[in-house]
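User: Can you predict the 3D structure for this chain?
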Amino acid sequence: MNWVKFMKTDFLFYKYQKVVMIAFPVFVVFMSIYSKASQDMIFTISYLCFGVLIVSTTPYCLENRNMSSFIQMLPGSDRERVVGRYMCLGTILLAAVAYGIGVVMAVGWIKGFHVTYFDMYFSVVAVALSLIVGSVQFLILYIAGRGKNTQWMNILRMLPGFIFFFLINYIGEKGKEGSLHWLEDFFIHNKLIYLISMAAAALLIFAGCIFASVKVIQRRDAI
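Assistant: Here is the predicted structure, written as structure tokens:
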């Protein structure tokens, strides 16, 4: 369970992102009350996932050589260090999704609108895809390593989140326009298979990226 200690250590990096971590949820509440997006569960969930994809990469950006040396001195294996960092991603993502669902339910009750099947099931796509994108992004950042050009690191941190956000909302809008009836029918008639498949795919890639990241670190240390 040493990975828990490393996860707590990584959470220390997020103190530098307090403004961003507070601003995203506050903006979601503001948006839900005063805009038409209040009735769009897909936008709300994908926006929070987009924030997680950016904020969760903070340790890679702020971890300097001294901090890295300190982390290396903590008791634990490379695998536990990597698992701790990936679990930060998972924990923040779960918290953001729970918050988003709470906001949508509260505003829906206040304003009297109902979330559609397409909204609910496509939001699951958004969450699963964000976990996949975040996992691959972490792996790429491990491969890139420390000491890279700041501009290059910022591109690696920002670009996947933006692509994810615009892709999810573009497809979501097409679905709401009625262009994806087949997808909505699939969601409705294959609920169990769909949910299990999305969860399995996301968790499999999550675990695979952890394994690959450990190998990257071990190979780098061996050189």
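The two ends are 28 Å apart (CA to CA). The longest helix spans residues 78-111.
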